[in-house]
Write a structure and sequence with these properties.
single chain; 363 residues; five-stranded mixed sheet; 6% helix
Length: 363
């Protein structure tokens, strides 16, 4: 399915060095667009401009906001806004060193044998927001007299270490089928975390996680184990694909799905009806609606243009951003193109929207 239109994100001269080349999470919030990547620990805030593009960028350092070590590799892969908070999740994944094209045989084997754990990826962040409209901004850790940013630091991995389904996959790198979180929806009292991997005999996994603020430390989140371990696993039949992102549309959850490895597809968009109110543990393919097959990495763009982030534009369309964007999405003036797809594939949105319908405000 081809996009109905494209939206220009203007990174400008004040943005961090990512330049839109590693976008992995996006949230539409009124006339604002919050965007994060999986490389530099930064959060971008765009404001909708006349004509439908997004500009007036302001960039916030996530490592400073969250009180983490300098230049911490958070690997943000999911984001959502709920009330006055912005929620973000790191991938929680391990990595395997990647050989270079000119490495000798011994070097290739040495690198492939090297698996690393990056502790700062093992986080869930709750960033309080203050201000309205274009003045909205996240509040950092230690800002006196303000609501406190809170961090879940490693507790989820500790809980999953004894999980029947997922414990065997924790030692594996994410791109080898190990644990890899890519997607977040914030609900009343819970977060849904989508897993790119592992995929279990073709079934994808979503974790429903319940959190509470540590009564002894307002900057610390804990799993709410009042009734059980603080989480539960939900499996979805996504035709063998893993979760690349999640977003909420009314009472439904949209699932952006793709391969666990860095392949060119398929990438698909599914609707999970009624998931906000009623989340059964097993969701069969007949209970999901396949909305669209999204283009990626074709022809000269092989290995590029992988859909990684999705956010609703009203009830009729979604905005999709890409990791490793193809050259045609980027320009020397530091802009990147995102795509808009209709939720009803039979209806064209090019004329009705044409850059003039603002994004929905957060619930």
């Amino acid at each position: 399915m081809e996009p109905d239109r494209q939206v220009l994100l203007r990174f400008g001269t004040g943005a961090a060095a990512t330049d839109g080349a590693d976008l992995s999470a996006v949230v539409c919030d009124g006339d604002l667009l919050w965007v994060a990547g999986d490389e530099a620990p930064v959060l971008h805030r765009f404001t909708r401009q006349d004509g439908g593009s997004y500009g007036a960028i302001r960039t916030f350092p996530l490592d400073v906001l969250a009180g983490l070590e300098a230049d911490a590799e958070i690997d943000v892969e999911g984001m959502d806004r709920a009330a006055d908070d912005l929620w973000l999740v790191g991938s929680h994944s391990r990595t395997r060193k990647e050989p270079d094209d000119d490495d000798g045989d011994d070097k290739v084997l040495e690198k492939l044998a090297t698996v690393r754990e990056r502790r700062t990826r093992n986080v869930v962040l709750r960033l309080p927001l203050e201000g309205e409209g274009a003045a909205a901004h996240p509040v950092g850790a230690g800002d006196g007299g303000r609501r406190t940013v809170a961090v879940l630091d490693g507790d989820l991995l500790t809980a999953l270490a004894t999980d029947t389904l997922l414990a065997p996959f924790l030692p594996l790198p994410g791109k080898d089928g190990g644990l890899d979180i890519e997607g977040l929806v914030a609900l009343d009292g819970a977060l849904l975390l989508g897993l790119r991997g592992p995929v279990l005999r073709g079934w994808a996994v979503v974790l429903e996680v319940r959190l509470r603020t540590d009564p002894d430390d307002a900057g610390r989140l804990r799993l709410d184990a009042a009734a059980g371990p603080g989480y539960r696993s939900i499996v979805l039949d996504l035709d063998g694909l893993g979760v690349r992102d999640l977003c909420r549309v009314g009472d439904d959850v949209l699932v952006l799905a793709g391969p666990t490895m860095a392949l060119d597809g398929p990438f698909r968009l599914y609707r999970w009806p009624g998931a906000v109110a009623d989340r059964q543990r097993v969701v069969r393919s007949a209970e999901l609606t396949r909305l669209a097959e999204l283009p990626s990495g074709r022809g000269a763009d092989e290995g590029l243009d992988h859909p990684e982030g999705v956010t609703p534009l009203g009830d009729d369309a979604v905005l999709v951003v890409y990791d490793s964007p193809a050259p045609g999405r980027l320009s020397a003036s530091r802009t990147v193109l995102a795509d808009v797809f209709p939720l009803d594939p039979s209806r064209s949105l090019a004329e009705p929207i044409a850059g003039e319908v603002p994004c929905p405000s957060a619930p």
